[in-house]
């Protein structure tokens, strides 16, 4: 029997940040860098908590080369080959602490990711990205990756509810990606009717993750970085904002 949840749920467009007195003289005095220690990998990472999404248009080596200069992170898309990764590691060894290898949940995905991590051992982050983070297959895949790479930090998602955050963390993930449909180009909500208002999702998922000493990443077209921090997210995922403002792609001019 379907159950309708009538409790109030909020999206980022429903709220604003209320200002309060500050002792800072200028925005330039704000220190954005944070240090994280991850539950399962035991790894520590310091940087500005902004992550470029593993989209093929923005999660690129060129993007990582720029973002790492500012202590920001890039989840590299999964379409690069092993040779591409070897060349990147040779040309930009300084970037490797600020990137993750992305993978789907298939057997071929696992083998490709494993070959990359074996060839480039300096990379210590894994991004497991699937369309449905609620499947039993995905949970088992997270367990498999954790067993194979016990010292790597694993990001996994996407989900929007606390119980699934807890299950993925207990299965071996360190960072959970939160959000179904809140991105600028995502059509999951409109085409399938599946989703959850993102502000409420972040608050609930952060509470579940932090109770287990885990972390969450949030994405939302509607929210600024401040609103997400106010909702207790640990990192912010950037997709289309990175493509329009930071993408290293060439500019094409078309005559009318």
Automatic annotation (TrEMBL):
It comes from the Eukaryota. Residues 10-217 form the IMP dehydrogenase/GMP reductase domain. One of its GO terms (molecular function) is GMP reductase activity. InterPro entries: Aldolase_TIM, GMP_reductase, IMP_DH/GMP_Rdtase_CS, IMP_DH_GMPRt. Its EC number is 1.7.1.7. Keywords: NADP, Oxidoreductase. The keyword RNA-binding does not apply. Residues 238-250 have a biased composition (Low complexity). Residues 232-256 are annotated as: Disordered. PANTHER family: GMP REDUCTASE, GMP REDUCTASE 1. This is GMP reductase. It comes from Myotis myotis (Greater mouse-eared bat).
